[in-house]
């Protein structure tokens, strides 16, 4: 089984999530992942709270890690549903993704997004498609 450092190295190929947005993988197990986003000024909207797109990206990336870190086939999202519940009060957002069901060609995940103070900021459900493409990750220049 891959180590956390190996998983982080593989997913560094997702440069938007890891470099541009700054998401960090904290935990990864088969069908489960926890990712974190240390909030910075560029993550905030005009109202001074985390922008919905930043929260969505965190949830989507947590899904990607939980669905793909230990799989031999790539899963991609087909449909997301996100419900924003409260503004974040802390300095870090955490997304915990877990597999509800995974079949031969589709999968279903739930992602809970909280802040470091325990505020439930949002939850997301993701319907994914399990492709026939082998899971390999390459960093592009």
TrEMBL record:
InterPro entries: Acyl-CoA_thioesterase_PaaI (IPR052723), HotDog_dom_sf (IPR029069), PAAI_dom (IPR003736), Thioestr_dom (IPR006683). It holds the Pfam family 4HBT. Gene3D superfamilies: Hotdog Thioesterase. It comes from the Bacteria. One of its GO terms (molecular function) is acyl-CoA hydrolase activity. Keywords: Hydrolase. Residues 52-120 form the Thioesterase domain. This is PaaI family thioesterase. It comes from Candidatus Avoscillospira avicola.
